[in-house]
Amino acid sequence: NKRMAANWFYGLWLLEKIIGIFPPRIAARIELHISFFRNPWGGPFNGQAKRVELFSQVLKAVPFRAIVETGTYRGTTTQFMSQASSLPVYSVEMNRRYFHYAKLRFRDESRIYISHDESRKYLERLAAKESFPHSYVLFYLDSHWGNDLPLREELKIISSHWKNSVIIIDDFKVPGDSGYGYDDYG
Questions:
Q1: DSSP β-bridge partners for residue 92
Q2: CA distance 185 to 87
Q3: CB-based contacts of 176: which residues, under 8 Å, 6+ apart?
């Protein structure tokens, strides 16, 4: 029912606005106790079963050493990637509130590393770390929304610093396949 869905989304929007009145650290602590926020879009990869399947197939095909995610949001996909792969997952979130939420959510997870930064700067920092793998890394790029679209630069950074790696880009259009949701920036 469209009306029920519209009311539900409005209620969620209103709840987020009310909680957003608080400073990011406090808002994150409040949200941590609201179960909806752990799985806000229907599961990992925004609830899209085909993307979950694609991720699982890629994981089986390549001997990855680490996973890098740009755009943690609430960490639903972050947690799935960690559990499905048993690999270290390095995730970066630019929004302070979502960063604090994910940091709290994964405080006891030894394989999940959450950072607060802009994705291009974060990738440059990882590239400069000698201890970080520079091959067989799976990149899941999902930090492109709003006015700043870092995807082009993210791809340049990755291609110039990592070899034998795989890049999965979220929110792209697959012509003829309505199973993939995507963002449209005009």
A1: 70, 115
A2: 33
A3: none
